[in-house]
Amino acid sequence: MNRPTPSRAARLTALATLAALLTPDVGPACPVAPTAERPQENADVEADTDLDSPEARREDRESIRAAMRSFEAAFEARDAEALASHWTAQGEYLDEGGKRIRGRAALRAGFAAFFAATPEVTAEVRPGPIRFLSDGTAIEEGAVAVRRGPAEPETRAAYSALLVREGGRWLMAQLEESPGGGPSVGDLAWLVGEWRSAAGEAAEIRTTYEWAPGEAFLQAKFTLKERAMDLGGTQVIGHDPETGALHSWTFEAGGGIGEADWHPDGDHWVLEAAGTLTDGRTLFETNILRRVDDDTFTWQSIGRLLEDVELPDLPPVKVTRVEPQE
């Protein structure tokens, strides 16, 4: 699908499928997907497909994710000793301003002073993709959101963690933060799993999100069942190297396609979407994804324009996580 002209570029976002016109809660099934292909930041180093294979490195990936969750828990507990233990003995931390702290003892002292000065600080780590450089070396990238107190504004930073395996544990040899920390596909990691929503009594939408190999993208598969009709499709969410935005691409089984730019806005995401239906008509809309908790989000489509004809806004739809046994 050709991208909209500049006058419509601001409305670029998620999918416009036939399903979106048939039922108000088809939206949740069509909204989320992982980032576009990552820019070639290490173009001089070719990826080792065996190293990055999710099957070959599944246990290592899970161990690294567990280590980063433990890191976040230590920060939330304001435990400087536990926090410093996530580094190697001579590990380094580089903050956004370029200040370098080296060694566990210095890290422990630095974090203890920081927690004493900001006793109400909280942080949320939003993990991103993991790349393996060797059997015992990996890089994990993501973003962290820090709030120094309930009334303080949230600040964001991007991070890159160089991890090494020592004594069966994955430890950070270096953690480097950089300013900005714009939205990344890692911010949507909480979507991984299966979700369900209902449209009245006759329709049900099921969506499953999972990481693509390499974890640079989220990919989703969705199905809509309504009476005798059965629709479905796929979606990919990730970083668009052309625009720098978090972007999604959606492909409906019947031939409809759509795109969306994702923008965080407080406690929700705003998706400026455009798509082409199977019959060739175009649909532009703004979608709002609001995370309620780890197992619930709402989805609403507003500002809908079908072939220059305004359509009414749709009410929010509740989407809930499906437990594995369901």
UniProtKB/TrEMBL annotation:
Pfam family, one: DUF4440
Highest taxon listed in the record's lineage: Bacteria
Matching Gene3D superfamilies: 3.10.450.50
Keyword Transmembrane helix: no
Record-given protein name: SnoaL-like domain protein
Region annotation Disordered: where it falls in the sequence: 27-60
Signal keyword on record: yes
Segments forming domain DUF4440: 64-172
